[in-house]
Amino acid sequence: MGRTVAVIWHVSFSIVAAGLYFFFVLPRWPELTGETSPTLGLILRIVTGVLIGLAALPVVFTLQRTKRPELATPELALRLRTASISLHVAAAVLIVGAAISEIWLSLDSFGPWLFGIYGAAAAIALLGIFGFYLAFVAELPPPPPKPVKTREKTERRGRKKAVTEEAAEAEEAAETEPAAEAEATEAEDEKSEPESDEADEPAEEAADEKSAGTSLRNKRPSSKSGTKRRGWRSRGEVTAED
């Protein structure tokens, strides 16, 4: 059985069973208002359970078709179909069993229990229906893996950024080193200038003292020599006169 036929079969049986369930199982308004007889309601409740059970047949045929190893069906899809079959059968058994038990059980005393069984059967049937369609979703192939080239590109971009950052840091270091050296040399020059000034001051004072001493010494001999020369001249004049 193909997928399209199985889906149409399952959908049609499920819709008819849902309609009968609403009108003749819960809340069964036509029967409670007296529009239909209890016997007709009982028969339609049994028919509802049978329809839910027959809705499991397309699930069975789909499971047999997809079990073949050459199809390589995912294990999850097979498990969902198996669970859907069991849920359909369980819901059908509960509805048919509760409907038949109404022949001997009165709704006045056992009504809440019977309605609870009908509600549980409806929930189980819904789980079976959704499981059948989720199996088709599980058969879908996984998304393709992301290409590795994008990762390589990002890694290359990261490396390029690291290289550029290192180059920028090296340039900044190269620019800051001469500035630091210039500042250091300026600081050393500023320190050496006052020391040289202080050293020059005593040297200048010593030079001034020496120059003053030499000037005094030069003056004294010049005076003595002048007197001597004058004496020799006077004596020469005297001898010449004599």
UniProtKB/TrEMBL annotation:
Per UniProt, the ranges with Acidic residues bias are 166-207
Q: Which SUPFAM superfamilies match?
A: MFS general substrate transporter (SSF103473)
Against InterPro entries, the record matches this protein to: LUCA (IPR058689), MFS_trans_sf (IPR036259)
- Region Disordered: list its residue ranges: 143-242
Q: Where would you find the membrane-spanning parts of this chain?
A: 7-30, 42-64, 85-107, 113-136
Indicate, by first and last residue, each region the UniProt record lists as having compositional bias (Basic residues).
217-233
Cite the entry's keywords alphabetically: Membrane, Transmembrane, Transmembrane helix
User: What is the name listed in the Swiss-Prot or TrEMBL entry for this protein?
Assistant: Transmembrane protein
Source species: Mycolicibacterium neworleansense
